Amino acid sequence: MFSFFKKRPKAEEASIQTQAATPVAPAAVPTAAPTAASFAPVMPAAASGAAAQAEAPRKGWLDRLRSGLRKTGSSIAQVFTGTQIDDALYEELEDALLLADAGVKATQFLLDDLKRRVKEAKATDPQAVRLLLVDALADLLQPLEKPLAVGAATPTVVMVVGVNGAGKTTSIGKLTRHLAAAEQRVLLAAADTFRAAAREQLGVWADRAQVEIVSQEGGDPAAVSFDAVNAGKARGADVVIADTAGRLPTQLHLMEELKKIKRVIGKAMEGAPHEVLLVVDGNTGQNALTQVKAFDEALGLTGLVVTKLDGTAKGGVLAAIARERPIPVYFIGVGEKLEDLETFSAREFARALLE
Q: What is the mean pLDDT of the chain?
């Protein structure tokens, strides 16, 4: 459900963009001026019946996000149930943020920023402090908020990596469905050639979305990726997505294989892959940050997909990523359904977590 995603002329850049949620106050979420990659301004719901209809699915997403982050958010919210703003409150908040896997650096940054905001606002109520924490967290996460751009190159080649079990192939399937629904011609590369289940799973998603897939049993993953890029160019695909085998960053010889895939894709098309996405499991907390650092050093990541945020008490890891390795988070997921993968908004996330 990418509200403003639509097919553009091939010479122009398209972008997966979504309508921002209606803010609590008019100034809470500023509306940027339309750019070449922005297809429609954010409109007040009262201005148009169509706008109101478009807003409804996003509200449903916000409800699911808030529900998914409940375990993380409830432990932080308990800090603000008292009546005083004192050192004890900040100490409790520090403990809650660390337990949520925000990490030491992000936790200290948020505490310092929050104390500054409290002083400037002359806040005297813990609930007012909680709302100031929403602002502090939203500002910290803002650098992660960026749309996934497709269309600057034809085809746009996306290489997707991650460890087994992170939800990599499922995320590719969901993204493919959304792209296909937005009239983008997608071609999938089943470059996890040694795991039959991965090829079969990707094949199911290809059938559902009615897109083409390049697959080869037991072949070389780099060769499959090479063939897929060439096939994408020949068949006029808008996007080629390569699903690679799950790799732990400690498996150095297997990480070298991912580097090889990236090099070979570059030989098939100059400048490709245009996007290198890492899918990480939000349940893994600080380990997710470790994966981000390792895969980024090896491959030069351009974006992240953070999955399985529902049911975890470690949703604070996005703060750690923002402070220590601010790679854009293109999508976050809170469930298995198609609509449970959505574009990331810093303020939406902060509100869902803390309000």
A: 83
CA 143 to chain CA centroid, Å, is 12
In angstroms and rounded to an integer, the radius of gyration of the C-alpha atoms of the chain is 21
- Judge whether 323 is annotated as a binding position: no
C-alpha triplet 299, 301, 306: angle, nearest 5°? 125
pLDDT digits (tens, 9 = 90+) for 82-127: 878 999 999 999 999 999 999 999 999 999 999 999 999 999 999 9
Q: Which of 239, 180, 230, 235 is nearest to 206 (CA)?
A: 180
Q: How many CB atoms lie within 10 A of CB 318?
A: 30
Q: Would you say 158 and 275 are in contact if contact means Cβ atoms under 8 Å apart?
A: yes
Structure tokens at 206: 């290809």
The answer on whether 228 is annotated among ligand-binding residues is no
**According to the annotation, is 197 in a ligand binding site?**
no
- What is the token pair recorded at 208? 């559902």
Alpha helices in 269-343 (DSSP H): 286-299, 317-324
338 assigned to a ligand binding site: no
pTM score > 0.90 for this model?
no
Instruction: Report whether 334 belongs to an annotated binding site.
Output: no
Task: Give the model confidence (pLDDT) of 280-339 as tens digits.
Answer: 998 888 899 999 999 999 999 999 999 988 877 788 999 999 999 999 999 998 878 777
Q: Is 169 annotated as a binding residue?
A: yes
